[in-house]
Amino acid sequence: MTIPHKYASTPGAAVYQNLLAELSAAIAPLQALHQQAVEALAPSVQEMVRSGSRDVQRIEHTLDQLLGHACLPEGLALFKALCRHYWTLDQQATASYVHAYRELWDADDKNDTEEVQA
pTM for this structure? Predict the structure, then answer.
């Protein structure tokens, strides 16, 4: 990330740039792990949805795993797809997963924190 020229001359710009570079380097391995987990979970989610799985334990276990990786767009897409499928089996449990997602990842968005009604 480059700072526009008008901000580059401020006293803390170099410190900010260095901190941002260090933070980006520290986060990169975590992002890679999130991506690997999403790629590993994708076939399972796709199979459960395609087959119309009614294995509640497997679905909930997978949703639990996906909650931790829903920070990536691909992880969120899998989470949503499995929630849509699970909604047909247990609306109340699905609503609790949606609420957990919102608490974990949407905490700053006050407009989307309303309770999901089953």
Answer: 0.74
